[in-house]
Amino acid sequence: MINRRGEVITSAVTNLDLHDISRAARTYGVRAVFCVTPLEDQQQLIGRLIEHWTEGYGARFNPDRREALKLLRIAASLTETIAAVTACEQQAPQMVATSARPQPGTIDCQKIGQRLADGIPQLLLFGTASGLAPEVIAAADAVLEPVVGCGVYNHLSVRSAAAIILDRLRFRRNGELAQ
Amino acid sequence: MINRRGEVITSAVTNLDLHDISRAARTYGVRAVFCVTPLEDQQQLIGRLIEHWTEGYGARFNPDRREALKLLRIAASLTETIAAVTACEQQAPQMVATSARPQPGTIDCQKIGQRLADGIPQLLLFGTASGLAPEVIAAADAVLEPVVGCGVYNHLSVRSAAAIILDRLRFRRNGELAQ
């Protein structure tokens, strides 16, 4: 990720990001959610969180939350994530970076919907802190257009942006409103 | 609100709800966000949070966040909220409750968009905990259809649901995709 000064950093995991994004993913039929961090203590923390909600007290307390958190995986790198998706889908995914910054050559949700309809797995990358590092965006197969509202203000939380993008994908798939 | 057992409760304020919903509101051109709680200590907590982000250190640290949190108001009741909106808009708003539970007679985002286009202020009510109390839903002028994804799973966070509904309102206004 980058921080507010544009420096490449490793961001800390935010508990609510994992919950909210997993819940939205479960709602919209996403196959898996990967939390990618090279930090071993953060990986252990996520592991405890997943265990609590899928097997521990949380699973009994809130079975609906369990359904969502069951989608959550831990990966140490993007390479490891791609390998896991490839093994599961039996083909390599296309990596689609997301960014709040306008840039040339972005694709829209309709395009991703077409690719999904063509049976090509799509791996959406969401950044925390001040967004994905430039080298991650450069390594992606495509960049999704920013979520824009009614003006130039463009500072959604990653939780909100992910929810909106999954909803747009649901309703724009195949180039038409599916509702 | 109601809790998991369906009992009417007063829920605690979640800091990230205020941030995420204010940021989404600012993105989509919403005029104000009211956090409604009868608990005086919670009102004071929200007041400190607003002060920090609109006038204190937070405002200098993150001016974008300031833009969002400036929309946030505190109210002790729905009656007080309606009075504040009426004073500001010079007409009473229509109250639209949201709920994850399917129920007869709900309206969709296109209908709300039509009302906005007709110049009628719309006051969207979002619940925390396990949702709005039945008497709040009964007192509303209308209930918005639940956000559904690809199946029956329907357990989004209020932060995600609010972001999705504002995005749908933006793109369905006047009965057509505005993008």
User: How many strand segments of chain A?
Assistant: 5
- Beta-strand content estimate of chain A: 5-15%
CATH homologous superfamily of the largest domain in chain A, by name? SPOUT methyltransferase, trefoil knot domain
Cross-sheet strand order for the largest sheet of chain A: 4-3-5
Query: Rg of chain A, please?
Result: 16 Å
- Separation of the first and last Cα atoms of chain A: 35 Å
Helix content of chain A: 40-55%
- How many separate domains make up the residues of chain A? 2
Which CATH class of the largest domain in chain A applies here?
A: Alpha Beta
Report the principal-axis shape of chain A.
globular
Largest sheet entry of chain A: 3 strands, parallel
What is the number of helical segments of chain A per DSSP (H or I, 4+ residues)? 8
Protein architecture, described:
The structure is a homodimer of 179-residue chains. The first copy, chain A, is mainly α and 179 residues long. The first copy, chain A, folds into 2 domains: 13-90, SPOUT methyltransferase, trefoil knot domain (Alpha/beta knot), CATH 3.40.1280.10; 93-172, SPOUT methyltransferase, trefoil knot domain (Alpha/beta knot). Helices cover 46% and strands 11% of the residues of chain A. The longest helix of chain A is centred in the first third of the chain and has 15 residues, at 40-54. The first copy, chain A, starts with 14 loop residues before the first helix and ends in a 7-residue tail after the last helix. The relative contact order of chain A is 0.17.
